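U., I forgot to send this yesterday:
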Amino acid sequence: MPRNKIAIVTGGTSGIGYAIAKLFVETGTTVIVASSRQDAVEQTMKELNCDGMAADLSKPDAAKALVDYVLEKYGRVDILINNAGYGSFGPMESVPMEEAHRQLEVNVVGVARMTKLVLPYMRTQKSGRIVNIASVAGRTPIYFGGWYNASKYALEAISDATRMETSRFGIDVSIIEPGAVFSDWGVIAAENLKKPSEGSAYQKFTDKMSLTREEKKMLRPTVIRSWIMGNLIGILPGAGASIACFMGYNSAKQFSKHKEEFGKGSIEGVCGSEAANNAVT
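Result:
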């Protein structure tokens, strides 16, 4: 990875974002992390010796302030990692439309907004890398993940469209599609699933959806960051396009306990065909 690059990492204070920011710092890249929590930004800046700014990127003024800050201080943006996002889960019948709008605002519009803000400068530079953290949920539906699925399918589309439109200017747009990752994201998603399901006709099914958060059953954020680094320097298949990271056998085994409700097809879609075949007998 070339040194002295300027990288913005949204959602950079925990999980995948933190792991990416840490690796960038270790390789000599100047990193600016962004998160909606001021305390988390300050802690990350201290731990990683990087720059940062508290910004709720679902708000247009906050996103613009972040990019303006980076450009004023460093004069350029070479890499944008669009990692900020969350998972809104629950039955389509029960999830309030206000929550559906928020899911799309954060996971789709927020990414598009940050991308639009950096593109003019990357075009002027005739270079730039944008990496969007999508999900295997952008490839196949997940039970009770309708709005989350919608956001990640949309992210796939806008990533592909942006790549086609901007490649002529020396800008590369990539998608990373993780499965289950060991981070606080899963805890938040579980809570988001629980709220709209309580007392509904779907509760007995959603109660079975909580997967164990044991480390051995999920990918580590450091695995994802390694794939991203390989994508950025072009040594992995899919560089400039997409990389899918399936959950694997352990997660498939957990799903298979309830195969009557979910079916092998859904397990295969989320966890990969080999994992599903081994886990579902």
